[in-house]
Amino acid sequence: MTTQLTVNDRKNAEMYRRTSPLIASHRKNAEVYHGNAICKEKFRGFLEKISMPNGLFPLDDAVEVGYNASTGFLWLIQKKEKDHTFRSIDSKVLYDDEITAFVEERRMSRVTGVRNKSGPLEISVSDIYIDDPASGKIKFVVTTQFGQTFSIQEFIDDETHLAANLEQKHWITHLTAKTLDNSSEERRMRRVMGVKSKSGPHEISVSDIYIDDPASDKIKFGITTEFSRTFPIEEFIDDESKK
What we know:
single chain; globular
């Protein structure tokens, strides 16, 4: 299902088709719309369909909106990045020119392209959800990452444990095929499950393991930490819907 494209909208949409493999992988059997007016209408409709407030994403210059019901993948392409301040809660949000998420009832997960600005910091939002509609609250989860790098040689011919010299650095872990959440690619393991780093008395879950540059002989273990903020749902309902 598509709408009539203007020349400019067609150019913008074609550009993003070439540069966004994630969106390209979900285009088959998806509903796709072009043009600001219809994109604005449909995107709000998709949000309402999953019981999320329709003003979460203020739209001005939308180029493309798509939704794949079979995979739960929703995307929005804008002509340019924009920022919006929700003044009643004093929160500034930055929206990239491409926004994606996997959606289900009252939840948007693995969000990309949405950042919360707090002072000089810009922190990516990873999940947006409503636990209890009766509470009138919506939660934003933000994710930060840090990592530690080791020599690749320490992991060769040792399938279960790190070498002794790494154990002395308090990095103890187990690497097995079962730790993957079906998310492997060349030189990278994403969304790792079941792998923990032990640093003194603490155990911290490893989220990514990857090699940026094979020539460097370095492998990096990424650690993800999360925290969240809760706001009233009504702050994200579009003004037109409140009338």
